């Protein structure tokens, strides 16, 4: 009898709490909390890290980059402001960056040693810890959309190459001819890297500063929406002159991309081999989760200490579940932008 009574009281309490809350598709958050989250939502993007120096950049090119970053982030911001999901904001923002030749993702992807373009991308949903990724695709105009479809429409997390493209066709994606990704600038970069290799100016091309820096422009986006959910996404053409179906960190969940509502959302850019070995994106989240370290401090430790100690370089963008952000890099610059809940826009390329 006592047990039944306890059960009834329990059910009553549960039911009355429900009237006090708004229900999102996945989480139930009290109304007062939703009000707070409304004031915290935000979005951060990057367009790659590297030896970005003002002296090497014309005013018109700098403006072109800034304009594109602005156009992209405004799309995501509008989605968030309208109550859309962090994942929608992330993917739609990345689409803009994939569709311009300016960045090393989608249209502007760098060339492999075999003069092809092989693209990598991934997304992660902080509410469910669901993730999707594609690697080495050659006929997908917007790889971030296929990564999302892998997450939503397949039982898998990561698909690669021809199989990923077969899946894409089955999902109704129209495939582009690989020549869509041809840009003269990226093609000439590859020729220059190969020339240096031939002349034995370098033995391992990724160690060559020219080679490393001719890959600028991986793109990424992280967002916190009005429902309190985090999402992250990253899309890239990888590194110039890559061989043997090399896959970088961008499609590796935990290295290039990670999101967890308990902590933060992260997107990485840099020398992928080191970002995989340091598990950069998850490491930042883990420090927050297990040690209570702030996003900014965790990002600093990983980007300024752990990655350089291995010999790698690059950066990350991050946003935590309170809307605090980090844009940390150990290179000369990183294309980056942020819009907070108050609508304040920041766009930067160099250290400051
Ligand atoms: N992380 C990318 C890769 O290694 C390249 C980059 O971010 O610039 O494939």
From TrEMBL:
Protein name in UniProt: Isoaspartyl peptidase
PROSITE patterns recorded: PROKAR_LIPOPROTEIN (PS51257)
A molecular function (GO) term: hydrolase activity, acting on carbon-nitrogen (but not peptide) bonds, in linear amides
Keywords assigned by UniProt, alphabetized: Autocatalytic cleavage, Hydrolase, Protease
Residues holding substrate: 246-249, 269-272
Positions of the record's site feature: Cleavage: 217-218
Pfam family, one: Asparaginase_2
Active-site annotation: 218
InterPro entries recorded: Ntn_hydrolases_N (IPR029055), Peptidase_T2 (IPR000246)
GO annotation terms (biological process): proteolysis
Top-level taxon: Bacteria
Organism in which the protein naturally occurs: Ulvibacter litoralis
UniProt entry tagged with the keyword Protease: yes
């Amino acid at each position: 009898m006592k047990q039944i009574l306890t059960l009834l009281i329990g059910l009553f309490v549960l039911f009355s709490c429900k009237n006090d809350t708004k229900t999102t598709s996945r989480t139930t958050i009290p109304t007062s909390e939703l009000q707070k989250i409304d004031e915290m939502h935000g979005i951060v993007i990057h367009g790659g890290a590297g030896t970005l120096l003002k002296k090497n950049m014309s005013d018109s090119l700098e403006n072109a980059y800034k304009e594109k970053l602005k156009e992209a982030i405004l799309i995501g911001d509008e989605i968030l402001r309208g109550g859309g999901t962090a994942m929608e904001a992330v993917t739609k923002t990345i689409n803009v960056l994939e569709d311009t030749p300016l960045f090393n993702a989608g249209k502007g992807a760098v060339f492999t040693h075999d003069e092809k373009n092989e693209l990598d991308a991934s997304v992660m949903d902080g509410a469910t810890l669901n993730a999707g990724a594609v690697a080495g695709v050659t006929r997908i105009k917007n790889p971030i959309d296929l990564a999302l479809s892998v997450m939503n429409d397949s039982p898998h997390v990561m698909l690669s190459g021809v199989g990923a493209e077969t899946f894409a066709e089955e999902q109704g994606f129209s495939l582009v001819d690989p020549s869509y990704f041809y840009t003269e600038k990226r093609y000439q970069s590859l020729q220059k890297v190969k020339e240096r290799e031939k002349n034995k100016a370098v033995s391992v091309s990724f160690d060559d500063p020219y080679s490393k820096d001719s890959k600028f422009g991986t793109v990424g986006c992280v967002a916190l929406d009005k429902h309190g959910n985090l999402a992250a996404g990253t899309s890239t053409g990888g590194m110039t002159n890559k061989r043997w179906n090399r896959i970088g960190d961008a499609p590796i969940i935990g290295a290039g991309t990670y999101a967890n509502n308990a902590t933060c959302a992260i997107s990485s850019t840099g020398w992928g081999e080191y970002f995989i070995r340091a598990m950069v994106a998850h490491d930042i989240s883990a420090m927050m989760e297990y040690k209570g370290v702030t996003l900014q401090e965790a990002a600093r430790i990983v980007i300024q200490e752990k990655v350089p100690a291995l010999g790698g370089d690059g950066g990350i963008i991050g946003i935590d579940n309170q809307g605090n952000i980090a844009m940390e890099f150990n290179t000369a610059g990183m294309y980056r932008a942020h819009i907070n809940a108050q609508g304040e826009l920041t766009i930067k390329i160099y250290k400051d």
